[in-house]
């Protein structure tokens, strides 16, 4: 059995990778990676899997998604916040309701989220996080007794607040179970504690919130900030995200 | 005269690059870059220039620094928090007192700070920030009416709290002059506001603080958190940091 590498104080690590551009700095093959893209990819993935989607196949490029035309899969492609022309839908959570996705497989490509999943492929395990499954996810992570790396998808490799705040929410729940924090997990937790009593108000001032507002998808943003409305944890098995049993 | 690029709301930008690894994402040639390495390179540079050093020449590699052997320059080299064997000193601020550096040129290489300076070379102007010259620096930046990019040197390309907190202190002073903030400058300012009433207490929990404590340089750390004890602003002219006139 592989021995888990502990911190010098004998604790497990919980670290936050603030953008995918920083992933090469982390020892991901020794960690359970949680991929986070709150507005909106990982929120929609959690919602879709909870709503009975058989699987969601994350692909990096629009062309890879298009290659599934002619199969019975649903094809979802988003770039720069908009549905790509010719696709069934993008990454609005309202497209991942039971009526649409139950019993179906969705092929999904997004600007940031699916990219972060692919960059994390060497991880011991990849699970998907969002406010929707926060507590279920944290309970699972604590039960695994393993190092945890929270990977924020950000916006085109830049830091963003919504993903960091969610990472901080996870750190906060794990911290009670005495993990060793790095500087970015300390910062994420402190920002979460500042924001938690009014997530919507706090995130209104962010760049991405403004960008999505311009796109007319404030309802999506508002919905993505609901906490603990699902319990499913999407996990990557091969090239498919499925419900963790 | 070159027109400064403004944000869509007509404001100047103040952005925070949380680690040098993210520099390629920023439009640095349109910005005044402030390089920040609080523990300890940029604190010591500010202190040395304020204490009468003629110039400080930042070099990336120990070998480049060694190449100045035989000149009348002082040679300073630090790696992993320690003075490199064979050099006059490293980056402890206590080595940059008037008795040692007044009227002298120092050639300096450090693990993070001088690296960040070199990566920023394409900037419109590079100035050096630390808590020592906080208010003088902010007054200068506001007077310039230009976009500002705060570059945190971090630790081996990872995010660190002390550089981010200082960036937040700058954002806080500039924010009053109505700059447009990005997500990382919002986060940095909020973390600074959390930390400002007890900088030493807040930073005790950081990874780098622990690392430096192991190296027995707590006195350096404590000293680097003194606010507004100098007014000199080191500016890069050619390959030399000199006092801005």
Architecture overview:
Chain A is α/β, with parallel strands linked by helices and 245 residues long. The first copy, chain A, is built from ten helices and eleven strands. Chain A has a domain at 13-51 and 112-243: Alpha-Beta Complex (putative 2-phosphosulfolactate phosphatase), CATH 3.90.1560. Chain A is 35% helix and 19% strand. The first copy, chain A, has a five-stranded parallel beta sheet with strand order 7-2-8-1-9, sandwiched between helices. In chain A, a hairpin with a 2-residue loop joins strand 10 and strand 11 (240-243). In chain A, helix 6 (161-175) packs across helix 7 (183-195). The radius of gyration of chain A is 17 Å and the shape is globular. The mean pLDDT of chain A is 92.
Note the overall shape of chain A.
globular
* CATH H-level homologous superfamily name of the domain at 13-51 and 112-243 in chain A: ComB-like
Q: Calculate Rg of chain A over CA atoms.
A: 17 Å
Mean pLDDT of chain A: 92
State the low-pLDDT regions of chain A, or none.
none
What's the CATH class label of the domain at 13-51 and 112-243 in chain A? Alpha Beta
Major protein interface: A-B, 24 and 24 residues
State the helix count of chain A. Answer: 10
User: Sheet bearing the most strands of chain A, described?
Assistant: 5 strands, parallel
Q: What multimeric state do the chains show? A: homodimer
The helix/strand class of chain A is: alpha/beta
Strand order of the largest sheet of chain A: 7-2-8-1-9
N- and C-termini, Cα separation of chain A: 22 Å
Overall number of strands of chain A:
11
What percentage of residues of chain A falls in helices of 4 or more residues? 25-40%
């Amino acid at each position: 059995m592989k021995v888990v590498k502990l911190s010098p104080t004998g604790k497990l690590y919980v670290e936050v990778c603030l953008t995918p551009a920083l992933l090469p700095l982390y020892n991901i093959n020794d960690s359970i990676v949680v991929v986070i893209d709150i507005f909106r990819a990982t929120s929609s993935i959690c919602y879709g899997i909870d709503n009975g989607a058989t699987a969601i196949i994350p692909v990096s490029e629009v062309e890879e998604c298009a290659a599934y035309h002619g199969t019975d899969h649903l094809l979802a492609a988003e770039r720069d916040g908009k549905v790509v022309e010719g696709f069934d839908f993008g990454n609005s959570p309202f497209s991942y309701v039971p009526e649409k996705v139950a019993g179906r497989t969705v092929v999904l490509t997004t600007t940031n989220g699916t990219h972060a999943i692919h960059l994390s492929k060497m991880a011991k395990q990849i699970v998907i996080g969002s406010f929707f499954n926060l507590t279920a996810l944290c309970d699972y992570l604590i039960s695994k007794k393993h190092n945890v790396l929270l990977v924020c998808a950000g916006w085109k490799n830049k830091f963003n607040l919504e993903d960091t705040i969610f990472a901080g929410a996870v750190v906060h729940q794990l911290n009670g179970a005495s993990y060793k924090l790095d500087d970015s997990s300390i910062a994420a937790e402190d920002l979460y504690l500042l924001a938690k009593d009014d997530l919507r108000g706090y995130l209104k001032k962010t760049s991405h919130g403004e960008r999505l507002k311009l796109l007319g998808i404030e309802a999506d943003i508002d919905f993505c900030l609901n906490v603990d409305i699902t319990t499913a944890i999407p996990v990557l098995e091969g090239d498919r995200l499925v419900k963790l049993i």
